[in-house]
Amino acid sequence: MNTLAPDDWSAIGLTLVLAASVTALLLLAGTPIAWWLARSRSRWRAPVSALVTLPLVLPPTVLGFYLLVALGPNGPLGQFTLWAGWGLLSFHFSGLVIGSVLYSLPFVVQPIRNAFVAMGERPLEVAACLRARPLDAFFRVALPLARPGLLAAAVLGFAHTLGEFGVVLMVGGNIPGATRTLSMQIYNHVEALEYPQAHWLAGGLLAFSFLTLLTLYRLEAGRGAPVRLF
Amino acid sequence: MRRFGCSDVIRADLRLDVPGFRLHSAFEIPASGITAIFGASGAGKTLLLRCLAGLEPGARGRIEMNGRTWQDDGRGIFLRTHERGLGYVFQEPSLYNHQSVRRNLAFGYERTVAAARTVQWDQAIALLDIGTLLERAPATLSGGERQRVAIARALLASPGLLLLDEPLAALDAGRKREILPFLATAQRELAIPMIYVSHQMEEIVALAAHLVLLQHGTVLANGPLAATLARVDLPIAQDEDGGVLIDAVAAAHDARYHLTQLDFPGGRILVPLESLALGTAVRLRIRARDVSLALSLHEDSSILNRVAATVVEFAPTANPANVLVRLDAGGSALLARVTLRSREQLQLAPGSRVWAQVKSAALVG
Question: Does residue A1 form part of some domain?
């Protein structure tokens, strides 16, 4: 008996692609934000910190709702994407990516920021005294030293995106093959009272998430330094 | 004050306000040899060094290094740290623990263009004797080894000026004595000017040629080390360990009594036998509390070293029972700490001829 239908496989594939692209984007965007938050003395630091952390406490539906409005034909982002010739991103895979990036932002920024704060100024001062330009010092000293934080950020960002529901529902709209992710598929199965299929997917997600975190903590235990997620 | 040519001095005039402390230091020091910055904890030594390195963005003023302007707010010049071509040895070794010793050493070396390299790879490794440590992880090294690697790492960036911030402070006395000769040799062989911050006079007399005295963020005195140590008006002369530094030459060995004779312009001093080649230049440290005065030559005393000297001046000490006496012995300055009562009994005055009885003298550096 085939336990997973083509629909399920398509949802799994879509979810993995989504999580991978969101993680990659978040590492690219989150690292400079984390760097700035860790080192800036600007008065904007507190508001930006609050903004970045907001998705952590906000109901995903609230975030999804505003995103839907913003990305829609009358929203500022929607008007921009229409003007740019990209069409509307709501109910579209790229809309999902945008929503997920915002939703998972704190999970990526926080560990990287912690890593930058923990290393302090000294390694960079040493680099400057050894003729390294600031950008050189960032890539050759700060990033390698922040590796545990970057790893934690990637794992958290990926795992968190895998399981998100509210934002996806609001912005994506549950379209098979385009925006129907794993958690949507589970919801559909449950709605249709297809509990065995729901079990396969839900159990798989549970096991995967547990194993990912287990691996992360094992890695860090081997290194001797506890990983600080938050 | 002696004037230096523009191209062989370091001139700085720096101001920095941090919560609870104001640094306002101006000085001119030779851009050669080792200059010590000495002061009590909290005098602003580290802050001054960080300003020189460009690590304190709030510092205002002017820095001229060997004719090159590092900072001049009046002209809007501020070279950033990596543009100054300096080396910095921090109080803690601050090695990159994610890299091997070799990678740590290579960090600055690789970032120095080959034509600008004044320190060669093998040379620095030999000077600090770290050849066997190259493949080790910094975390597995002892404190002394780590600091030696940190010094070599700074030297390998071929700095035009090496700043050292109490590099031995975290080490025990044995390790300190182990590293001091490395620093002295490195300075001699590489001719890199160094600024050495410390609150340990023992390290300063072993290394430095020039001294800047810092107190509450301002420069209290600035001059050649020996001349500055001999000033009775400075708090360092009042210290329990206050005293002079004398340049001497190993002149003879006495195998029978296990003594070495050291000659200096004002006379000779005998010290316990030292394995020194005759003619070797040495530094002798004579503390004021180890010098007593007599009007006649006492042949019936156990004190070996007696030097003919003339009283130059007096200064009161913190303890009202004592008085500090500055003497001239054939051009070399000596300090003696005697009681006020002795001064009056012997009727000492500037110009008095005396015998300085030296109870103990230590070879340094």
Answer: no
